[in-house]
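Cont'd.
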Amino acid sequence: DGGITQSPKYLFRKEGQNVTLSCEQNLNHDAMYWYRQDPGQGLRLIYYSQIVNDFQKGDIAEGYSVSREKKESFPLTVTSAQKNPTAFYLCASSMTGGEKLFFGSGTQLSVL
Amino acid sequence: RKEVEQDPGPFNVPEGATVAFNCTYSNSASQSFFWYRQDCRKEPKLLMSVYSSGNEDGRFTAQLNRASQYISLLIRDSKLSDSATYLCVVNAGNNRKLIWGLGTSLAVNP
């Protein structure tokens, strides 16, 4: 089955620690995205990539980093510089960028 | 004014009711419009794209009013399984960036 897979489902971060969220898709989509969702807030774009080896900052990129070495994979690292990382993180992909998105099941990140 | 605004609700309706949500957008250059559905602590899923001519998918009807800059979603014969948050999404013009509304919460009661 084609789809987009995020892991882990739940992740805990200690103070000062970097953590990496995984996102893999086998839909052959060119574009991939990372969003953050906080309670009572809309989805906010962290980073996006429209092609391998290229990515752009979204609205809230500070404290995050990404890579796009393969078309299928777009991992997100939450660095220690992100002071309020507790949120629900959603990875998405789309065929051409900016249109219909397919989402992974999300990762809930919490701070210990 | 927010780029995309939705009434947060919650809308509490009985099974079988008809319910309508509106969503207003501020950028008149917006090109594409979508409704997504999100269940609690789950990922959003595309419900419908919204076309200028309006479109219908079973019990769901979406309409676009460019002059007044709003889109609507009508759900007929509500089912318990329609309980969710409905997100309005607008493609904000040339840079193809998607702007997400905060969502409207719907609870369908037996």
